[in-house]
Amino acid sequence: MFQKYLIVTSKQDKAGMNICSNLSQYNLFDFHLVDGSILDQKNLDLEKIERFDFIIFASKHQSAKKEKTLSIHCPGNFHEVWGGGERKKLCPASALFNKHLFETLIKNAKEHEMNYKTTLEVTHHGPLISKPCVFIEIGSTENQWKDRRAGFVLAKTIKDATKTFKPNKYREIAVGIGGSHYAPSFNKIQEKSNIAVSHIIPSYAQPIEEDFIKQAIEKTIEEVDWVLVDWKGLGKSEQRQRVIDILEKNYIQWKKTSEIKK
Fold first, then answer.
1. What are 108-147's pLDDT values in tens digits?
2. d(CA 240, CA 231)
3. pTM (2 decimals)?
4. Buried b (16+ CB within 10 A) or exposed e, 121-154
5. Is the dihedral of CA 234, 238, 240, 246 positive or negative?
6. Range(s) of the chain covered by CATH 3.40.630.50
7. Domain covering 172-259 assigned CATH 3.40.630.10 in the classification
8. What is the DSSP string of the chain?
9. Residue 82 reports pLDDT greater than 90
């Protein structure tokens, strides 16, 4: 499905350079090292990006809680622009590759006894590009960004996932709606069910607009079977009803995350 992968990071990003330094040992990848933030597409060589099938952004993750995390997520913005990209625009994403990458991350983190939380994040921030892409990140402080073992595990995850990825036509494809930033309901589904999840629209992206849902579906490169709704994580009853009205108006099939066998 994907033949040519490009690894993108900022020269100023300690976590990204840590991952890329480890990846360079394999002599298998092309790199795009950027001056400035990779969240802003103005800093990227978009012509170079167009020559590749899939883009992997290696990056740091920051959080107020300063948790030790190894995470992946799709880029895109809803009401607010988080550090780059454009308002209300999402990047293309592969649910199947994201699932495989996440499963590989969990496997490698366990094998190397990493004392880090492995997690999805909801869709957020830029850049905005036309190629399918994903972020893989080390969080959440400088100590973790420079952690060589964390860099090694993420580099190995990228290597293993790109080497072994084969689209599974028996997977069900979904986008997600609801829940908090670290998408706890979707973590379990991505790891333990037959469903592959691409974009996740968080509960804090209220009011959730019809175009958010349509874009999440259209920007998933596989045909989407379901929208999965984190019912408890979607907020008030009127917020839930708004989402259901949009889905049913557009004849979009949906299920609650609680209904999925994990």
1. 999 999 999 999 999 999 999 999 999 999 999 999 999 9
2. 7
3. 0.98
4. bbbbbbbbbebbbbbbbbbbbeebbebeebbbbb
5. negative
6. 5-164
7. no
8. ----EEEEEETT-HHHHHHHHHHGGG---EEEEESS-TTSGGGS-HHHHTTSSEEEEEEEEE-TT---EEEEE--B-SSS--SSS-TT-B--B-HHHHHHHHHHHHHHHHHTT--SEEEE--S------SS-EEEEEEEESHHHHT-HHHHHHHHHHHHHHHHH----TTSEEEEEE-S-TT-HHHHHHHHHSSEEEEEEE-TTSPSPPHHHHHHHHHTBSSPP-EEEE-SGGG-SHHHHHHHHHHHHHTT--EEEGGGS--
9. no
Instruction: Please state, in angstroms and rounded to a whole number, the distance separating the CA atoms of residues 37 and 78.
Output: 20
Give the model's pLDDT for residue 17.
98
Contact between 7 and 90 (Cβ < 8 Å): no
Burial of 21 (0-12, 13-18, 19+ CB in 10 A): middle
pLDDT of residue 186 exceeding 90, the answer is yes
Backbone φ, ψ for residue 7 (5° rounding): -100, 125
Which superfamily is assigned to 5-164 in CATH? AF0625-like (3.40.630.50)
**Residue 142 one-letter amino acid:** E
